[in-house]
Structures are given as C-alpha cells and as structure tokens.
Amino acid sequence: MSALKVESSCRVERLHLATAERLQRALAIYGGVAWQLLWLTREARQDEEVAGMQILMHHEWQALACTIHQTPHLPPTLRQAVRWIA
Question: What is the C-alpha R_g of the chain?
Fold first, then answer.
C-alpha cells in the first residue's frame, strides 16, 4: 500500500471520488503507476549504471530530463531517472 503514496503528486484529493466507479478507475491507474515505479526502483538497484534509455522510451526520459533541467539533457542512468522521478 505504501506504493500508492503517489497521491500527493497525483493530487488524488482533487479527483472527487464520490462514487465507487470513480474510485475503481483511480485505483486502476494509480496502481499501475505505483507498480511501474516499484519496478523501476528495483531495476535501478540491481544495476546502478544501466542506461535509462534501455528501460525508458526515448520520449519518456527526454520529458523527464526537460522537466527536471528545463533543457535537453544527455540520457540519464536508470538510477538518475528514478531519482528525478522521486
């Protein structure tokens, strides 16, 4: 359940989850996000120097780099990418 702490960055409190259907949809999406983050963290711990571009798609690591650095950046290691996400 701790993996679902993405609520603060995903602003879950603003979703107005007044119905069970809305709650189910939100849990399906955020559960997938939490699983992906846990998997990326595990992969980064196993091999700290693996290139992020071997795991993340080109547009994913570029968007992440531009969000963190506001400019294009060299491909990060997976460990760097996980830290940027955190």
Answer: 15
Say if CB 41 and CB 82 are below 8 A apart. Answer: yes
Token pair, residue 58, equals 């080109």
pLDDT given for residue 1 in this prediction: 45
Q: Which residues pair with 28 in a beta bridge?
A: none
Asked whether the predicted pLDDT for residue 12 surpasses 50, the reply is yes
Structure tokens at 74: 């060299």
CB neighbour burial string for 67-81, b if at least 16 within 10 angstroms, e if fewer: eeeeeeeebbbbbbb
pTM > 0.70: no
